[in-house]
Structures are given as structure tokens and as C-alpha cells.
Amino acid sequence: MKAFFLLLLFLPHLVAEPRIHEGEVEGAKYLILSPEKPNGKVLLLAHGYRPKEAPLSAQFQTDGLLASTLSEEGWVIASTSYRRNGWIIDDALADLRALQAKVAELHSPPTRTLILGNSMGGQIVALAAEGKLSIDGAIGIGSAFQNYPKKDFSPQLSFAPKAPFILLINQEANRPMSESYFQNAGSGLTALWKIERPGHCNTSDREKLAAIRGLEDWLEGKEVPREKDATSAIPQLPSSARISLTGTVTHLNESWGNLTTSFVASDLETLGAKLNDSLVVSAGGKSHTVTLTSHYSLLPQGRGAAYLEPDGHLILQINGQNLAQQLGITQPGKITLSLGEAAAPK
Fold first, then answer.
1. pTM
2. Measured at the alpha carbon of residue 272, what is the angle toward residues 266 and 275, in degrees to the nearest 5?
3. Domain end position, chosen among 187, 204, 229
4. Residue-range definition of the domain harbouring residue 274
5. What is the CATH number of the domain that holds 274?
6. Do 272 and 152 belong together in one domain?
7. Which of 126, 154, 263, 293 falls 20 to 30 Å from 211 in CA-CA distance?
8. 73 shares a domain with 16
């Protein structure tokens, strides 16, 4: 009975994760990320051109900032591989319609559907905005509007969107095409948001989210800039990298298992190691954590120690135990030193 009660306590946490649905319709794979509590909104993803021989895939970053933020708000996010690769505008539109039907089968009919596509997918979402799909708003990233393989505009485009359409465009070869589309379509239902960063479709999840918020405001009757610099600064994220230095065990004390190494004080500075920091010593696939100290005798029995000997080299040992045996070291050779988790920079 107690176990059942504990299960009830933890059950909300167990069902809070979004559910992933995967399958295939008419030869096209799909991936649908369903939130715990759908809010009636759906985001469709339309991928760009892929080589004909590439495997079909509907995968997207389900734990990225875009997907996780929208999923927490209750959005359903859905993607299709299309039934084949290549320059396949019409097939892609058909597969996106099938994807919408699959979403409706899993959930109630949506109250709002947005579509986001990049490169060739940018032309697909433009056609969706022009009435080829039943959607409420569209975002085209680095849109490839050409009549592939020609470079002139696709004859399928009407330049008359029926739903709000935001063009996100980098400093790239396709920028003139987006600018021309905006000029031809006018600012009634089209917006040109420039990402002042080089690279094809080089937009961040923050910039995509900002465009989605812009469409939401637009659909709710709020004033939305038709032209603007929509660039978001690249965030300065804390590093999770670990500096690792490779050195050599120059002497092995056979009696105690202490290791004299080639590491010196400047190596510790490179690691950013300070007194009392944890260091990870690795050799031959095995590792052991030691503490940087002034001398091993300052640590309790059984604690790993790293300290500079008077001649300037780093000694590694375990107070009262055999570090060489712990690491499987039987002779001088390569050894690796890095900061432990507790000592790593925040």
C-alpha cells in the first residue's frame, strides 16, 4: 500500500515528459512531439533539400531550445521526412497534408497551425502561406524560391500569401530572393526579418522563437514590424569542456605505488587547478580522483594526493595505498590529468 502511495506521488513527474510518436504514411516517415497538456497549437517543420541517395529522416532536435520551450507551453511539433529526397515541392506538400491528418488523429483539431521551413522548405512554406496548405502562419528561413535547377523564381509562387509570412534571411546567396519576394508580395501579409550573420539558414532557436512570437502577435491583431534586424547575439554559455593534459609516469615506486610524473607547476596552471581541487588521473582506461595538496601527509589515509616534489615534478599517490595498482600501471608510460567535476570552472 505504501509503495502504491509513493507511485501516486511520483506519477505526475512520470507523465510530464512529452511523448514522441514515430511512424510512416505513404512512404514518408513522421515524428510528432506531443506535450502533456496540448494547448491546441501545432508547429509543422518542413526540411530543406536533401540528396536523393540520403536516408529518409523526420528527426529534429526534440530537446533543443525551440522544441522544449514550445512543448512546455503545450505545442505539438511535427515533422515529416517526405516520401523521397531531392527537389520535391509537390510531394512535400502532400506529405505535410498527411502529417496534419496524423496530428489531428492523435489530438483534437488544432486551433492554430504554424509552419517553419528552411531552404527548399522555405519555398514549401511560402506555398503553404499562399493557400497550398491549411495553416495560420509561416516562417521561411533562407528560402530557396528558385525554379530548380534554374535560378529564376518558381512559377508556382503567386506572391500573394493568404496567411502572415515571415522571411528570416541571413547574409547569404538567397537573400536577394527573399528581398524580391517581399517586394513583390508587399507588406500586407509578408515581413522581412534579416539575420545579420553569414551562412545559409544560420539562425538560432532564439531567432526562430522570436519569429513564432511575431506570428502569434500578428494573428492576435498586434502591430508587427514588416522589416527589421532580427539578429540575436550569440549567448556566452558556461563551458562544460574539460582540459586534459597528457604526460608521462617517469618513475614508479614499486613498494608504495607512488607515481612521479612529467607534470610541472605550469601544467597545473594550464588546468586552472588550485590547492584542494580534485584532479582525475587516467591511464589504460582506468581513472582515480586525487586532491591537489602541498603534501600527501596532509590528507587522511586512503585519500589520493597530487603534490609537487621539491625538484618540481608532480607526484601522484594514495596515502597508505597503492595508486599504481588502482590504475593498473606496472611501468613508466603515458598518463592523463584533468580537473575533477567539483573543481571544473563554473
1. 0.77
2. 90
3. 229
4. 244-340
5. 2.40.30.90
6. no
7. 154
8. yes
Question: Are residues 144 and 122 in contact, defined by beta-carbon separation less than 8 angstroms?
Answer: yes
The residue type at 118: N
The residues, any chain, with a CB within 8 Å of residue 58's CB and separated by 6 or more, are 22, 28, 29, 30, 31, 79, 80, 81
263 close to 315: Cβ distance less than 8 angstroms: no
Encode pLDDT of 176-191 as tens digits.
Answer: 999 999 999 999 999 9
Instruction: Please indicate, yes or no, if residue 234 is contained in any of the structural domains.
Output: no
Instruction: Find, among 234, 109, 114, the residue nearest to 164 by Cα.
Output: 114
CA distance 2 to 17: 25
Residues 254 and 203 occupy one common structural domain = no
Contact 314, 308 (CB under 8 A): yes
Residues 314 and 307: their CA atoms lie apart, in Å, by 5
Place of cell 595508486: 323
1 located within any domain: no
Residue 88 identity: I
314: Cα separation from own chain's centroid: 40
| Residue that terminates a domain, selected from 188, 204, 229 | 229
Q: Could you tell me the pLDDT band of residue 6, with boundaries at 50, 70 and 90?
A: very low
Answer for the pair 18, 76: CB distance below 8 angstroms, yes or no: no
Q: Is the pLDDT of residue 15 over 70?
A: no
- The β-bridge relationship of strands 112-118 and 76-80 is unpaired
Of 58, 90, 59, 62, nearest to 76 by C-alpha is: 62
